[in-house]
Amino acid sequence: MDASTLPIFLKSTLIGLSIAAPVGPIGLLCIQRTLDHGTRVGLATGLGAAVADALYGAIGAFGVTAVITLLTDARSVLALGGALFLLWLAWQAWHQAEARQAAAVQGGVKGWQAFGGTFLLTMSNPATILSFIAVFSSLAAGMANVSPTWMIAGVFIGSAAWWLVLVGMVGRLRERLRSAHLRWIRRGSALLLAGFAAYQLTTLVAG
């Protein structure tokens, strides 16, 4: 990495961080899974979102017109699929057994399942790619001699750093919470996830 690449890399890292940091359904899901299943599953959940962010960042950085057009045209279908997935996650969180009992009986949520589910949920939000296209177009003036690879790497590192910090903080809190606290947090998360799904469906109908 040379002196001309570093500013773009740092800006892309901040972009990845700023897109990941706002509390939304992915953040709630990451917190809930960390509390219920531990830091490994929580981190896998966050990394699924980080990889999806990096992929959307790659599409925006390289300007893959056909893919952008396809995702834009399919945003209604993607939004519907994402809303239904959120409702399923909300139902699962509300009816979930005690975390330790579930882990003993069912083996808990696997890391690859947490990663894949969050990746698909993040990819189902076309607004993410539109955000990356808008931001990267504003950086185009400084990209003339810079490989888009550094921008993609910056987005991934910024997003992954946020999930690492969040999971670490929640993981420490987890040890101090009792089963009753976890149950109420889980049900609160379920209601919020259902609320995000309802908002997405309402926006889809209104649009």
TrEMBL record:
User: What membrane topology does the UniProt entry give?
Assistant: Multi-pass membrane protein
Intracellular or extracellular location(s): Cell membrane
Q: Which Pfam families match?
A: LysE (PF01810)
Parts of the chain that traverse the membrane: 12-31, 43-71, 77-94, 115-144, 150-170, 190-206
Tell me the first and last residues of the signal peptide.
Answer: none
Q: Which UniProt keywords apply?
A: Cell membrane, Membrane, Transmembrane, Transmembrane helix
This protein is called what?
Threonine/homoserine/homoserine lactone efflux protein
In its UniProt entry, the species of origin is given as: Roseateles saccharophilus
